[in-house]
Design brief:
By secondary structure, the chain is an alpha+beta fold. It has 17 helices and 16 strands. Among the domains are: 139 residues, Serine Threonine Protein Phosphatase 5, Tetratricopeptide repeat (Alpha Horseshoe); 111 residues, no CATH class. The strands form seven sheets. It has a three-stranded antiparallel sheet. The chain is globular, with a radius of gyration of 24 Å. It holds the Pfam family SusD_RagB.
Length: 555
Amino acid sequence: MKKIGKITIVLFGMMAFYSCTNLNEIILDEYNATTVTDKQAADGILAPAYALLPSIYQHTNLFALSEISTDEAILPYRGGTDWGDNGIYLSLHRHQTTSTDPNVRNTWNLLLQGISRSVTAINSLKVNKDPSATLYIAEARGMRAFYNMLMLDLFGIAFQKEDLGDVSTILRTDKAVEYIRTELLAIEPIVETTTGPGRISKGAVWGLLAKLHLNAAAYRDPYGATLNHTAADMDKVIEYTGKIISSGQYALSPDYFAIFGNDNHGNKELIFAVDQRAELNGHNRMAYFSLANDQRPLPAYPAANGTDGPAITPDFYRSWTSAYGNVDPADADPRFYRRNVDPSVECVDGNSYNIDRGILRGQQYGLVYQSGAFVKCPDGKFKVGPLYNTRGKAPYPLVIHTLDVNFTTAGSDYSTGYRVEKYEFSKKSSSGRNFGEADIVIIRLADAYLMRAEAKLRKSDAAGALADVNAVRAARTKPAPALTSIDLNTLLRERGFEFYWENQRRTDLIRFGKYEDSWTEKDNKDKNMRLFPIPQTAIDGASNLTGYLKQNPGY
């Protein structure tokens, strides 16, 4: 008998695969590897192509690059020290990022790993005999295209690679756009409609194609003084968003904040999302990232709290107040804020307690916490009261979120800046830094409507654009008032209202020609900053290939 060395196979089995992406890791060794069926092997081969999405969408990776670099988010040195990180968030916001920035490097590395894992899955599935292999190859190709699209958006580069043993061909501008488009079109007839938001489906392909054509002008000419949004591209945006809207697979959510709730995996508005249910990947910090350190949302877990991270800029807040005038945006628009904590109610039942959602302003209220435990009322309920910032020494100041936030000493205090609690804080989070149950949205139906509205508007169909925008505004149980007119500036503002902190703002600002504008603590107008620097570690690693990987202009 031929002697076989000890082997270990890590199989990511995808249970309940028809409606979701449920990644359960199973360790198999040489004694039972022969019991793995072709279907189980195929499931295990495909799963790693998706598995890096939670890491890419962590708060310090894609979110930092997509939001803290814009007018929607600012992260100062809290209290003069916290979130300092050698100034990387200040530099990111000011458009002064360097090629040694760890958030840039980590995002680059994760995207490259995603491409590599997708190529591995494609190659391995070609020899798998299970009937599912054809579908899984298409999904892996879709993920390769998606990672390349993010790479193109952030760094101006796509990597074409068919075999792991090959050196990737670097594509830029037109060639990169055409490569991604061709890949997505190739899988459109193969992928299914009912695989759920955690996987590549027909809806996801249509959404990615729409986004590709919508941003094609910026991808083809990333440093252009004026972007040429062609009629042909806009027609394709209208075509693919129309397929999504008319498919019958999706529906606008009546409850805006349910889109970002702990059980949003089944929300019909989601088209493509990062499957973040707690029993799967966990580690979703989007809910605690901005929240005050002394806000403790879970009666069952006193240690679960916020981190006093980023706030919105005063500039972004004023876009709301300028839109609604004398009416408080919290009263005018359901996307701005939802009150869940009533300050006039002193004692609450722990099972029904939820913190406020949306944009948090002014004095904050929550569970009263003293000496490592929550204070209880005489009837056993939890006591609610004003929150105090307990980081320093007594007497403790109140947690009052102010409009002004900047990089000065006063503007960097722990409580400065209006905060965002868009994603629901996980009911299973023992520390606040783990167990993200809410799927992270990549594409949802409202985006299809607003992409189509933009394409129509760029083709001078203002009436059609207005109808699409108002369809989204009217869909919520408490609808926002209908707009009576639309132009590009109003549409950009509307995208800010609908998609704030959903990793869209940087791409939107570039497409609308606003990324070089000035806002709080940022006045850099260098158009080279539209793309991030290629990490120096990547350039050094490719130094044996002369001229292979060149730094982007301006870095």
